[in-house]
Amino acid sequence: MHSLIQLSIVVLLLPLLSFVILIFFNRRLPRRGDFVGVGILGTAFALSLYIFWQVIVQAYDPAFRVAWDFTWIDLGNVPGLGHLEIKMGIVIDNIASIMLSMVTLISFLVHLYSTGYMAGDKNYGRFFAYLGIFTFSMLGIILSDNLFAIYIFWELVGLSSYLLIGFFFEKESAADAQKKAFLANRIGDIGMWLGILILYSQFHTFNYQEIYANLAAGKFALSNGWLTAAGILLFMGCVGKSAQFPLHVWLPDAMEGPTPVSALIHAATMVAAGVYFVARIFVVLTPDALHVIAFVGAFTAFMAATIAITQHDIKRVLAYSTVSQLGYMVLGLGVGAYSASLFHLVTHAFFKACLFLGSGAIIHAMHHEQDMRWMGGLRKQMPWTFATFTLATLALAGLPLTSGFLSKDAILAGAIGFAQVEGGGIFYLIPFLGFFSAMLTAFYMGRQIWLVFFGESRTHLKPADDHHHSHDAHSGHDDAHAHHGVHEVEWNMRAPLVILAALSIFFVYSPDPLDGAKGWFMKMIPTPSTVVGSYQNHSDILHAEVIKTSHEENVVVEHQNNKHDAAANATSQTSTEHGEHFYADPRQAAVIHAGHGAHYTAIYISSVMVILGIGLACVVYVFNIIDPEKTAHAIRPLYLFSFNKWYWDEIYQATFIRGSVIIAKMLSWFDTHVVDGIVNGVATIVRNFAFLNNSFDKHVVDGLVNFTAFTINTTGGLLKKLQTGKVQTYIVMLIFVVFGYFVFYFSRLVY
Amino acid sequence: MDIQQLSIISIYHYLTISALLLGLGIFAVITRRNAIVILMGVELILNAANINFLAFSKYNGGMEGVMFSLFIIVIAAAEAAIALAIIINIYKLFKSVDVSRIDTMKE
Fold this sequence. Notes:
With about 750 residues, chain A is mostly helical. Chain A has 28 helices and two strands. Chain A has five domains: about 1-145, no CATH class; about 190-475 and about 485-535 and about 580-645, no CATH class; about 540-580; about 650-720; about 720-750. Chain B has about 110 residues and is mainly alpha-helical. In chain B, about 80% of the residues lie in helices and about 0% in strands. In chain B, helix 2 packs antiparallel against helix 3 and helix 3 runs antiparallel to helix 4 (about 65-95). At the A-B interface, helix 28 of A face helix 2 of B.
């Protein structure tokens, strides 16, 4: 076993140890055992950093990979399936080592931060225990080398997310939110499991590398549509976990959880697990599946950004911003900008965790006020929070010199390149939505900064009875209106902010503030070449092999023609592209090449968009040239559309939830009338039969028994009289018998 | 009927006497309430048997019947002793020798 593998197993199990200790013994430990969680996560982070150092700095090899596995369950020879054994294993490559350090670092910082934020909560110890089990499951997702293991850990993070969203389960909204999150994730996970089964049915292995190899060797016996379906089904897991468009509704509600949890799980790590998973299976995705992924991502990014503009709750703005940024990552994977997407995952994790922890600091200092309308003027009281929050905001908006700029720009460049290669007008929608969302991001983040930190304090404007905004309320805290004494948070909440803000600056990732591709990250995480390229749609693979070379050449030529000739017949071109996949590899190359070419275009457009967005925010909120209230009134339908989150909750309520209820009612009717009817009918028949049986028993069987008894009784009563107990009676009887015998005997002699 | 004929005592006379004795004995045993009278009835029955044995012995010409009747007399003596002992015990137990009142065999 490689020493790094051993080390990573230790890292994986340390948070589990923390969970076990804290869940059972937190009440017996001093300070409810928070030092156990913080200490263990600190150790885990130190070890992960060592792994990171060994892998990224020492090895510095894009293809670095160590793996180890063992047979977990050996079911032997299963009839109809062949030999069935389930392996577990660990793989460490560049992305895993980066994610490992990222997750342990953020988890460590969140542990540290929670010692301040959650202080005084009655379930303080259990909170740290849950953080431990979450970190364990997340590390499991990162390290596992097969689909089966990742599915197990996938469900485990779902569980820990469920537990932590409903941490204040006494509140009904929190209990509802945790149910919603769990159910939404469930839908995605079912699709994911079906996808895993499709791949398993073909290759009889869960291991990533073996799946890639088998697919590349053309062992996928089903049609290409099935491979696309498998890709989209696997992507459904990501849709659920990473809150993509149809299932995004749970993430904003998940903000009912404590703010450190929002930072750790619902911003930085767990929601990014979906993206990480799609990245793991990136090479088996067909171009069709990638198109679906790209459109879902682009739409999610755009939709969430428009919603974020009008929200009042500081955490909800950040939640929609998270959905939007996850949309970017998914878009990036969909357009083939693999490394850019993972880059954005990591940079986003740091600055979004910083933003959430900053918002937590604000909420903490404001005595659990979350509504931005009643904030304002906090920059003087909370300078540290202000500085770090602003830095992270700039990174999120994608201003140059920040990490967010590097990664977002790389994704958008990839999107432009993708649209150029695909050549269809509809595909330009993806970069367009991306750039537009970038502008909206800058706008709503500018709005948030302004509302929270600048201007005068608006605490006194809050209506007296407006209690329902004070989420996250710990028990035993004073009244939400007691806003006197807003002051900077303690060091244990400030230090994580500073560290995370520092990781949002460009030089951590790349020496060039304008080009992430020159940094170590994108060099270490190259886009893997797809294995579906050499896969044939035809049944006769041999025939296809022969003609493959010529086809490829033709297609490349076609591609070049297409690029030079803008007026080329786009539709026919697309249809040929989609019909056959001989040239999937050249397509990928073309996309990546075009993405590099579009780099500067993307920089210009996105910078302009960001400046436009910030400028617009300034115009509206700083200089008050446009009054937000009046504007909202003027475009009231649009405002309401955004404010009510595109009515997705209502639509789902009206369709799926009500539909489910109707189906449930129908089934209930069916149950009560048909099934119960059958059961009752059977019962009636049985009952009547039983009555019959009963009367038979009573009259016939009992009659026989009673008759026998009666006969014996009567006979006995008669015979009893013979036994008088007097000797003389017996003598008389004796004499009669002897006399009778003589009469009988002698009469026989006579006759 | 002449004197010869009268003096001749045939076997039927013996048997008739014996049968009468037996009947009287049985009658005594069945009807009497006193246990001692019953015992007397038993003696009558035994003597009826003795007369039978002796009569058949006389008309058959052997001595077996005489031997039997001697045995019976001895046994009757023994039987009378035992029976009287039983009657004394019964009297001790029930304070009576009235057999109609002694019906504990029913239980």
